[in-house]
């Protein structure tokens, strides 16, 4: 079975798919709160208001995948962005492809550190949450509203992750 | 100087001010992702679209306050909710009062655990971020757009936190 290599997650490498939310991502920055806090401003838009929808915050409590987990499907949200904010401090895997017709050969894998969160652009193909070593919580910002906001497709060629275990 | 006691943060106690985002808050829950993830659905609305605004994700990197820190002001956002998603796993303090004319006698203090995040309702008075023991990162969901979205007021009677140090 094809093994998908995981590259380090960075804002540049992830740009075709969405935004990386961490302290390294280049952005406008300025001090607030009497200088006690640095604001890294507007790292990702929340694009969840189409067709009567609105964004909300949910909690995803993910179990870790098994070491031999097989990736068999991908999904995309045609009506909104979806952000996964990592609140457990654990590393996790991200598997994505560009919006449009899914090109399986162009699927990319990333390894996020425990201090990295991400937001998928509307329409970015992605595998569901892949917690690696232990159960992990993510606060999710996504669209709630009428209409179909999840397309799912089976992979013709299932994948395994080449994991750094 | 008046000392503000901190109560444990819970969804019930915080309800007049906003929402608590953690695994304990009662909500609709259901399994997703082939049963690997439990979705705690719609713990908090994102109310950031008034008057030409839109929500975005920013990162707040907060230094810890000094043990003798004096709280001298409160602020509120008349045009939007503001969520602080705790990504560092550290405890922090929350100081709030209900929307409307600020009643200093009714200011309340909460101690959040490292696994608790919160969202302030539009108009809730709050002190700025109060990291306690060490520098801490929060991913913030708030309104970006035209118009004044921050009212600030000086406290007539400054406060100190009664901290569990």
Keywords:
homodimer, 165 residues, mainly beta, Jelly Rolls, 5-stranded mixed beta sheet, RmlC_Cupin_sf (chains A, B), Ureidoglycolate_lyase_dom_sf (chains A, B), lyase activity (chains A, B), purine metabolism (chains A, B), Ureidoglycolate lyase (chains A, B)
Can you walk me through this structure?
Two copies of one chain form a homodimer. The first copy, chain A, has 165 residues and is mainly β. Chain A has a single domain (2-162), classed as Sandwich (Jelly Rolls). Chain A is 2% helix and 50% strand. In chain A, strands 2, 9, 10, 12 and 13 form a five-stranded mixed sheet that branches. The first copy, chain A, has a five-stranded antiparallel sheet with strand order 3-11-8-14-6, with no helix packed on it. A three-stranded mixed sheet of chain A has the order 1-15-7, with no helix packed on it. The model of chain A has no long low-confidence stretch (mean pLDDT 97). Chains A and B meet through β5, β6, β8 and β14 of A and β4, β5, β7 and β13 of B.
Q: List the secondary-structure elements of chain A in sequence, H or E.
A: EEHEEEEEEEEEEEEE
The count of helical stretches of chain A stands at 1
CATH hierarchy class name of chain A: Mainly Beta
CATH topology of chain A: Jelly Rolls
Pfam family, one (chains A, B): Ureidogly_lyase
Organism (chains A, B): Congregibacter variabilis
Protein name (chains A, B): Ureidoglycolate lyase
Subunit structure (chains A, B): Homodimer.
